[in-house]
Design brief:
2 domains, single chain, mainly alpha, transmembrane, MFS_Efflux_Transporters, Growth Hormone, Chain: A
Amino acid sequence: MNKIRIEQTKNTFPWLIMILMSSVTFVGILSELMPSGVLPQIMADLNISEIQTGNLVGYYAIASAIFAIPLISLTMQVNRKYLLLILLGGFAISNIIAGLVYDYTLIIMLRVIGGICAGVMWPMISAYGMRLVDESQHGKAIAVIMAGNTLGISLGMPLVTTIGNDYGWRTEFIGLGVFIIVIGLIAFVALPSTPGEKLTKSSSPFALLKIPAVLLVLLLTLLGVVAHYGVYVYITSLVDEIQLNGGIESALMLFGAGSLISVLLAIKYTDKHLRLLTIAMFALLIVSMGVVIMFGKTSGIAHFAFFLWGLSFGPLVTLLQAAVSRQVDSAVDVATSVQSSVFNLSIMIATAVAGLLLSIYAPLSLVYFAIALSIPGLIISFFAKKTLS
């Protein structure tokens, strides 16, 4: 009966199921970034330093990067639906308990648990979704599922931060945990059950790293993520330097609008125009950063630069995961876990290098840094006809 259901799903694109999966990536990114919006509250409540509070996000990301590959490999044979439900349970429990306890060390441990769940969830959910659609719709499935990530950053973060500021950070954490439980219950009823697959020597992480096309996609991941996040992590400093009218709220609103539009374009065109979209992603980043350099203090034009940047940023996750998934015939979960680990590692590199640049030079140095990384990314994408076809 379940096989018939999956085959029927493959014949027509299962929008409701994909939107449900998108809600998982939505709460996944919120679970990771949520402390960022209420750092002062957490510092005051737990009586900890700014660095200790920042570790609530840092250790989460480190756990995601470290555990993604080994745990994806270990759970390859587990039913995809049941694995996703376990991960949602981990997200919910870690957030709810973190909102109830007062011991910093315990909260850090709970954040690590959440990070481990994220390390498994990000690569496996795309592969799970791809199994439910025809091969010609793989890119579309990834785009819809990963739209939750963009929506979480552009819409979810302002919303949960407002809740945290109005009702307290503990209410924010517990509320997200309860919302995740609701998603888990709907997923238990609505998601189709699909078996795992065996991990072989040819589909191991080490075997995948021997494939030139996979390495090329990982290089594009490194260049694209470090270029984008090197500026995004310190966007407030950039906005302050160019004295943008409307401040950070205006910048994030335009950035979010651009991201949403590009996500919709990615949903429609990723399957047929992956290479063109990847080229456009790097090109738009170069153009937007160039506009900031030349017209950063010109009202209107500067605002348009943040919109263009959002257009470039929106499909980042979608395009890179779609690219790496095309390089393998089986064990897509493992391939996307390798790419996901490089993605998280790249965010850590971006934060460290950009922070160093910011301590020596002005915030505009981050803009030049993004352009310097985007140019080789653009060139590689242009000539990677076979890999991105």
